[in-house]
Amino acid sequence: HSRQNPILNHQHHECDILDRGSLLTLLARLKPHIIVHMAAQAFNGASWGSEDYTHQANFTGTLNLLNAARHESPRAKVLLACSSAQYGDVQPEDCPLQEDRLLRPITPYGVSKTSCETLGYQYFANYGMQVYLPRLFIHVGTGHPPATAIQNFARQVAEIKKGKLEPVMRVGRLDTARDFIDVRDGVEGMLQMLEKGRAGEPVNICNQKAHTIQEVLDILVEESGVDVDVEQDPALLRPSDEPLLLGDNSRLRALGWERRYTFRETLQTVYADWLARTPD
To answer: What is the pTM assigned to this prediction?
Structure first.
C-alpha cells in the first residue's frame, strides 16, 4: 500500500461513452497507459426496468472504448469491469464458481456484462490488446445509491435512527446469499491483476464467502440499535434471483491478494456513511 494516491494528481474530463468520436478525441489527447472502464448501467435489479439502456450503455459503450483504445492507445492496459451476474443460472451445489464455468446469465445486466467480457476477449485475441477481465462480485462501499439490498437497508436504518422514517424495514427476499466484497479490497484485487495478472484471463474478484440478505439486515439493525418491524415490499422482488452466488478466488489469491476488511467492518462503514448523508 505504498502506491501514490492518484487523487492527488486527478484531472477530470467528461466524455459520453456512446459517442465514439468523443472517445477517440479524448484518448488521442491523453494517450493513457492504463484504462479502467467502469462506466455502465451497473445495477442488476435496475436492468429489468431499463433493459434497452443497459445493453446500450454496457455493450455499445464498451465497444466504443475498445475501438478508441485500439486506434489511439493500442499498448495500454485496459481493465473491463465484468460481473458475477454473468454466471447466472447456478445452484448452490455449483458453488464456489470457477472462472472456466459455462456462463448462463439470466438478467439483462448479466447478459450485457457477458457480452462486454466476450468483446474484451475478442480485442485481446484479434488485436493483441492487453485487456484484463475481472469478474466483480458484489462490491460494497460508501457513496453508493440505494440500488442494492445493503445500501437500501443502510439508508432505511439511518433514516429510522434519525427519526425520518417509521421503524418499518421494507425488504425483498432475505434468503438469497451473495459473495460480498469491500470495495477497498476489490480495488486492491484489480490493481494486482494489472500488475501481475494475465491479459485475456477472467479472474473472480470476491472473498469466497457468502452472506445471506437476512444477515445483512440483522447486522445493520444491530449496529444501529433501533427496533424495527420487517415487511416485504413486492417492488423489491425480481423476476429471477439466484439463491446463491459464491465465487472461487484461487486465481486472485495466486496474485498475492489478501482480504483486509471483515463483512461487519464493511457494513459499519456503509451505515456510518448513510448516517452522515441523512440530515438531522
So the answer is: 0.91
State the virtual CA torsion across 121, 179, 262, 42 in degrees, nearest 10: 60
Max Cα separation, the chain?
Answer: 58
Task: From residue 214, give the alpha-carbon distance in Å to each of 5, 105, 122, 147.
Answer: 36, 24, 40, 17
Dist. CA 201–CA 157, nearest whole Å = 40
- For residue 105, pLDDT over 50 is answered with yes
Q: Which DSSP state fits 99?
A: T
User: Do residues 77 and 34 lie in contact, with contact meaning Cβ atoms separated by under 8 Å?
Assistant: yes
Confidence category of residue 273, pLDDT binned at 50, 70, 90: very high
H runs (alpha helix) in the chain: 20-30, 51-55, 61-72, 108-127, 149-161, 183-196, 213-224, 250-254, 263-277
Degrees, nearest 5: CA angle 261-101-133: 55
